[in-house]
Task: inverse folding
DNA sequence: AACCCGGGCGACCATCGGACGCTGGTGCC
DNA sequence: GGCACCAGCGTCCGATGGTCGCCCGGGTT
């Protein structure tokens, strides 16, 4: 039959079910490039996992089979973030904000790779940091990157990209006040809402116009804040 | 607690679960504007349903409760398309290609509306014709628009947008040869692949550069064809 | 050592983009 | 009227964007 979309006989067979996208066949992933450690993890503030790098030990499965006397270093969970000022190294079992922001740059790099690959394979080419990118990052060994975390702090990174000055001030302020990360994170919204106001409330546009931000989805909460602020604005002056 | 993302007390309550997006609350939809019939359905070639417009009768449910002697006019399925040349009205219980292409323009209009609405509500604003747009079209009474159909013929519409001349020629050719719609549809791929070749195989870019096409996803089949043709190109000259 | 605070991220969910193939409309004989 | 063709579109499916809250790490007492 000629239909069922199998046109171009020479093509049909060759192209058919050949999308490695969704599983990213380990073949392609394991190899070389090693983005994770040499350049990237080294740059910012690796209080995280390369303190001693006891390499991968067995993954403890809920209190079972844990050598006694060895409380290991194969941490599963990343150390929590604390508010640090720019250039400051986090003390103790914590990670600083420079490290947090570097994670976003790493993701951008992983996105680049995914884009390159999908172009070579003739697949849909992602424009944003998608699930596929997180999966790719994991396969490349960047297990410290995960979706919920990255999405959680996107707007903090946004402020960092859009107004480094103000972002740095806020970090210093919240550090000196000994506020926790959650409080700092919340505080990052306000300056962004102000920026949106100055850009006709087009927060989407604000993101898209910035080279580094373009690849990140605007967080729902930020969009909502902009929306309600806009409404309050136009409420309070009853003309127009 | 201050976290759990409920910051800005005055905002939290007001904004919370107020996304009408996914159901499009009939309230907002039923009303006015009536895109469907007056301007749009009237323009092209409504061999479709307004021949007599016996308004909505009961939807027959698989041979049950059908007034005898009344084999009604409440057609469920649209009349199939036939290959028509530009300006030609389809004869009999068929629809012509001008009508098909108009459906795409209607979708663009529905997308506009959805974008307007989502901007007003501070929701994510779709850039492409998404499920939401099809749902909106249906709610607005354009029941003759549906996703599988529109996706099926996207590349035909693409040719129509990108090279009207060639599209028209192809239509005439296939009409004169008395080819069926499926054959014409298949034939539409080739000129597009050629266009992609002339644009560095960037079919995505070809779509995005065209005002009307930008809102449509590049069909998988077309992307795959471009990919395999590209491979054949570079195979056949062994240098580089 | 025990406790409690805070936040990392596993895992879930609604919805998405995408596709297949059944159903039945349609024209021909 | 009956049949064979073929295409419309209901309906499914894997994967996506987005989120919640459990679990436990870590600092404090």
Result:
């Amino acid at each position: 039959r000629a239909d069922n979309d199998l046109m171009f006989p020479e093509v049909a067979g060759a192209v058919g079910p050949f999308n490695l996208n969704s599983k990213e066949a380990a073949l392609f992933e394991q190899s070389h490039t090693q983005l994770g450690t040499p350049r990237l993890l080294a740059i910012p503030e690796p209080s995280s996992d390369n303190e001693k790098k006891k390499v991968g030990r067995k993954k403890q499965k809920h209190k079972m089979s844990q050598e006694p006397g060895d409380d290991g270093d194969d941490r599963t969970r990343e150390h929590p973030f604390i508010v640090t000022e720019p250039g400051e190294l986090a003390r103790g079992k914590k990670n600083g904000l420079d490290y947090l922001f570097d994670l976003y740059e790493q993701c951008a790099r992983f996105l680049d790779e995914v884009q390159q690959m999908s172009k070579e394979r003739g697949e849909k080419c992602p424009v944003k940091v998608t699930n596929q990118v997180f999966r790719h990052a994991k396969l490349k060994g960047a297990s410290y990157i995960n979706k919920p975390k990255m999405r959680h702090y996107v707007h903090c990174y946004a402020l960092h990209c859009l107004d480094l000055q103000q972002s740095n001030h806020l970090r210093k302020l919240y550090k000196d006040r000994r506020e926790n990360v959650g409080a700092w994170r919340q505080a990052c919204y306000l300056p962004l809402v102000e920026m949106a106001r100055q850009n006709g409330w087009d927060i989407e546009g604000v993101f898209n116009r910035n080279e580094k931000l373009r690849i990140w989805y605007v967080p729902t909460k930020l969009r909502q804040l902009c929306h309600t602020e806009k409404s309050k604005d136009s409420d309070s002056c009853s003309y127009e």
